[in-house]
Design goal:
The structure holds two protein chains of two kinds. By secondary structure, chain A is α+β, with helices and mostly antiparallel strands. Chain A has six helices and seven strands, in the order H-E-E-E-E-E-E-E-H-H-H-H-H. Chain B contains 13 helices and three strands, in the order H-H-H-H-E-E-E-H-H-H-H-H-H-H-H-H. Chain B is globular. Classes of the chains: A alpha+beta, B mainly alpha.
Chain lengths: 162, 301
Amino acid sequence: MNKKSRIRASIFAVLIILVTFLIAENLFVKVQSARLHKEPKFYAAAIATLKAGESVVKISSQAGWYRVRTAGGIEGWLHSSAVQTKKVDLVTMDKSLKEKASAEEVALASKGFNEQVEQEYKARHKDISFAWVDKMLAITVSPEQLRKFLEEGKLAEFGGGP
Amino acid sequence: MISLRAGRISLLLGLVLLFMSCATLEKGIDAVSAVDASDVEDAVKVTQAVRKSFAEITEGEEYYIGRAVAALILSRYPVYDNPSVTAYINRVGQTVAIHSERPEIYAGYHFLVLDTDEVNALAAPGGFIFITKGLLKRCRNEEMIANILSHEVGHVAAKHGLQSIKKSRLVDAFKVIGETAARRFGPEELAELTTLFEEALGDIVEKLIERGYDRKYEFEADKLGVEGAAVTGYDPKGMAAFLQTMVDDSAGQEGKGWFKTHPSAQDRLGKVTKQIEGITPLPSEQKVRTDRFQQAMKSLS
């Protein structure tokens, strides 16, 4: 192998490492809203709330959680079930492909069985009330309430986990 | 010497490429908001064309299906509107949900008590979970409620409701969705899709309320429920204790609620007992939890 070949091989190796590094980095929120926690625990304080489709950069991972950085520069923890990876966005250098992948994400969030279908369904079934469904959605348990409940009940890492 | 120089050049090039890649990455993220309509059309067509089964129902679609199933359940049962009991049930429910296989779902898990003496618990897709007052009255401690709610969370996490939708129905729905590229459906498409939506709801409600899930789904939910409760720190024998009450009371109640829609309590008890034998260390009931359960249930009329 001559000098040029070695240099080419080294550049190629660096590129492969970079691409591999970038593939794993970007995550998209797939739930309506996800709390960004201070620590990798559901009962840890929420430092931001992220909306469906928002992208974050993955920094590290730990037992089902990702440490991420938001577009606004806030760092915190998201559970893996709240996000999906979109590898194609990051590795492809083709602009149209990249846009299509992003467009797909945007489109999927608003297509299919959606609010428009629900409105049509409600128009057809005026006897079916969604009032309690909306009230039900308003019932939430904050991270602080959850922590207190776990702690007082000696549950999970507060004394009950196997 | 030569390889050292090549290494330095590679390192330098690597750093330059790293900066270039980061800049490209940022542009890529910016491009999300600068997508033109034709790209959206292409992407939607391609994506919808390959969707075939319940597994490809998006989180958002699951949520809208779940909302309507929940509304249908609530059209059959009145709500037991007791804020302190509701708050307690939601705390127990969230506690087991965060230890499930799918802790984050589109709009989270929410729990409500139904005002009926019928013994039943129902889980609509998207995390809308119902437990009847009749079932609560059977529970003697927090361990029993936690295991039952963990079983219901298991149904949601494993998407058992969505699996009740007939496959042909889904294929038709995905076809309608794929045929239109506009952000909003036209009147004909909307009418067709809403009819398919109604039929999908019918499939789920029939299983959930009328006939019950397939036995394998109930056994799977029991398994997930017991696992989830134990990982949370609840005594999984709470599930066995509940099933035992159902075995004791099953005579003459075959046609109602839980008895109608669930496999024999005796069969389930056998499987659950075997599963519990394999859990070590086994969490045990705690007085502090039983005390707060009794406190919360004081106002249960």
